[in-house]
Specification:
Blueprint: E1 2-11, E2 18-28, E3 32-37, H1 44-51, E4 59-64, E5 67-68, H2 74-81, E6 84-87, H3 99-104, H4 114-127, H5 143-154, E7 161-165, H6 173-189, E8 193-198, H7 201-207, E9 210-215, E10 218-224, H8 225-230, H9 235-240, E11 253-261, H10 269-275, E12 282-291, E13 294-304, H11 308-318, E14 321-325, H12 340-354
Parallel strand pairs: 3-8, 3-9, 6-7, 7-8
Antiparallel strand pairs: 1-2, 1-4, 4-5, 9-10, 11-13, 11-14, 12-13
Bound molecules: adenosine-5'-diphosphate and magnesium ion.
Magnesium ion binds next to helix 1.
Length: 355
C-alpha cells in the first residue's frame, strides 16, 4: 500500500520558503489504482517524489508496502526505492541500448547471473507485450511502446507499488488506452498499489479505483470513483461525468436532476417509468458512461408535479438519486454543496482534459 499522512513539503527556507504540499493524506491499497488529479503546478509530481523517496517530506509520514519510509537513513534509501517502480511522462530510455538492455538496467549491480537476467527480461517483455521488440532500439518504437518498456523496467525489481507520473500525457488516444489497459492488468495480476498522477479526467474514468483532487498543494476532495460519480455534489464526480442539466419551465411540470451508478440501476429505467409506472417523462439531458467498470449516469427529466411522489419512489427503488432542479436552470451543474474552490478546480481539471 501507499499511505501518506499529514504530508507537508516546503522548498527553500527563510524568505525563499515555498510551501508546495499542505497536510496531504492519501491511501492506496494493494490491488488498486489511486489517481491524483489536478491542474499543472498543484504539487502532483512533488507528492510522487515524496513517495518514491526522491524528496524528503518537510513533515508528515509516508508508508510504502507496510514500511514507514519517512525517516530512513540515507544508506537505506537505495534498498527502499527498490520496492517502488516509477514511470514518467517520457520513459527516459537509453537511446544506445536495446529494449532488452533497457529493461535489464535495474538488474545490473545486483549480482544477477546472465542467465537469470535473460529469463527475467524475457518474462517482463512478455508481460508488457513486447517480446518481439527485444532487440530494437527505443527510436524504432512508438510512444506507447516506449512507455511499455518503461513500465517493464519499473517492474524489474518486483516492486509492490508503482508510481506513474503523467505516463500517458502526450500519447495519442489509442496508445493511452493500451497503456492504461496494461496498468489495469498489472494492478490485478501483480496486486500492485498504483499511484496514477494525471491532469486528464479521461484517464481517471478509464482506470482509477479511487481519486483525489489536488489543488494548490491541498487535497480538496477524495474518494472511491464509483462513489464520487454517484454524488451529485462532488466536484470530482462532476468532472468525471459532466452534464448540463436544464429545467423545463412549463406550468404543472417539475424538473429533477438524477444521478446514478451501479448494477442496481436497470439500463431501461426511462422506458420502465412510462411502461410500468405510467409516467409521462420528458428527458431534457442525459449522459451515461462506463466508469469503474459500471454504468454511471446523470440526467434531467421533467414530470407533472402531481406525479412527483411516484417518480421519486420508482427511482429510489432502483437506487437513482433524484433532486429537484429549480426553474430557469440551464448549463453546467451548479453545486450548492460543493465549495467554491472545489468547483473551480473541477472545471479547470476538465478544461485540462479537453484542451
Ligand atoms: N525542487 C523544487 N524547488 C522549488 N520549487 C519546486 C521544486 N519542485 C517543484 N517546485 C514547485 O512546486 C510546485 C508544484 O510543482 P509540481 O509538483 O511539479 O506540480 P505538478 O506536478 O502538479 O504540475 C510548482 O510551483 C513548482 O514550481
Ligand atoms: Mg507534474
Amino acid at each position: 500500500m501507499i499511505r501518506v499522512e499529514k504530508l507537508h513539503k516546503t522548498f527553500g527556507t527563510g524568505t525563499r520558503a515555498r510551501p508546495v504540499l499542505h497536510d496531504v493524506d492519501l491511501n492506496i491499497a494493494q490491488g488498486t489504482i489511486g489517481a491524483v488529479v489536478g491542474p499543472s503546478g498543484a504539487g502532483k509530481s512533488t507528492l510522487a517524489r515524496c513517495v518514491n523517496l526522491l524528496e524528503r517530506p518537510t513533515s508528515g509520514r509516508v508508508w510504502v508496502a507496510g514500511t514507514d519510509v519517512t525517516d530512513l537513513p540515507e544508506r537505506d534509501l537505495r534498498h527502499a526505492r527498490r520496492a517502488i517502480g516509477t514511470v514518467f511522462q517520457s520513459a527516459n530510455l537509453l537511446r544506445r541500448r536495446t529494449v532488452a538492455q533497457n529493461v535489464a538496467m535495474p538488474l545490473r549491480h545486483l549480482g544477477v547471473t546472465a542467465r537469470e537476467e535473460k529469463r527475467r527480461v524475457a518474462e517482463l517483455l512478455e508481460r508488457v507485450g513486447l517480446t518481439d521488440r527485444a532487440d530494437d532500439y527505443p527510436a524504432q518504437l512508438s510512444g506507447g511502446q516506449r512507455q511499455r518498456v518503461g513500465i517493464a523496467r519499473a517492474l524489474a525489481l518486483r516492486p509492490k507499488v508503482l508510481l506513474s507520473d503523467e505516463a500517458t500525457s502526450g500519447l495519442d488516444p489509442a496508445a493511452t488506452r493500451s497503456v492504461l489497459a496494461l496498468l489495469r492488468e498489472l494492478r490485478t495480476d501483480l496486486d500492485l498499489a498504483i499511484l496514477l498522477i494525471t491532469h486528464e479526467m479521461e484517464v481517471v474514468r478509464e482506470v482509477a479505483d479511487t481519486a483525489a483532487l489536488l489543488r494548490e498543494g491541498r487535497v480538496i476532495e477524495s474518494g472511491a470513483v464509483h462513489q464520487l460519480v454517484a454524488d451529485p455534489h462532488s466536484a470530482l464526480g462532476n468532472a468525471l461525468l459532466p452534464d448540463r442539466p436544464v429545467s423545463l419551465d412549463r406550468p404543472g411540470l417539475g424538473t429533477w436532476r438524477l444521478t446514478y451508478q451501479g448494477r442496481s440501476v436497470p439500463t431501461d429505467w426511462l422506458t420502465r417509468l412510462g411502461a410500468d409506472h405510467g409516467l409521462d417523462v420528458h428527458l431534457l439531458s442525459a449522459t451515461v458512461e462506463e466508469i469503474a467498470g459500471q454504468a454511471a449516469g446523470r440526467a434531467t427529466v421533467a414530470v407533472g408535479h402531481d406525479r412527483a411522489d411516484e417518480l421519486t419512489a420508482a427511482l429510489d427503488g432502483w437506487g437513482i438519486h433524484a433532486e429537484p432542479l429549480p426553474p430557469g436552470h440551464s448549463g453546467p451543474a451548479e453545486e450548492p454543496a460543493a465549495s467554491e474552490p472545489a468547483r473551480e478546480a473541477a472545471a479547470e481539471t476538465v478544461e485540462g482534459a479537453v484542451g
